[in-house]
Amino acid sequence: MIPASPPFDPRSLRDAFGCFATGVTIVTGTGPDGNRVGLTANSFTSVSLDPPLLLFCPARTASALPALQASGRFAINVLDIDGQAVADRFARRGIDRFAEADWLDWAGLPVLASAKAAFACTLHADHDGGDHRILVGRVEAFALAPERESLLYLHGRYRRVHVGG
Ligand SMILES: Cc1cc2nc3c(=O)[nH]c(=O)nc-3n(C[C@H](O)[C@H](O)[C@H](O)COP(=O)(O)O)c2cc1C
Hey, what CATH topology would domain 23-155 get? Predict the structure, then answer.
């Protein structure tokens, strides 16, 4: 292991970050104008049980960010193994991201009907995170579909869980 020194090559740093396996989420919200917004995000992390807190990190440039900040609410939709198409859709521009999936309405928050889990949050804190923001959400409601398999993301690719050996 030979350490790299600043200034870091962004590609190499991204590759190093990307060796940490995550799940995949769609973060959704509704702006003050009533329009639904959302993006694919793997920066989701649980934070606290009491009070119930979680976080995710949207890019400062993310088109959904102003609506999430203004409304003070967002939903985290954890994707199941069949969620790859939705993940790709919410990372693309110039399309209706909410088309081609079934959405529930949780008191104004769009929740993916096929999600492995969903968390409806109020915005608890909004921290500086360099070229991202760190949005901490307080969980106001959640649901879990235990029978569904989670979608994973590792080394820039979608993966599935291997059980046993
Ligand atoms: C698997 C995956 C994970 C991602 N995770 C994040 C994330 O945590 N934060 C973020 O800001 N963008 C993330 N992105 C990128 C956004 O989904 C993408 O930039 C999207 O276009 C949102 O930006 P926009 O609404 O400004 O177009 C991820 C994309 C993929 C495919």
Answer: Pnp Oxidase; Chain A (2.30.110)
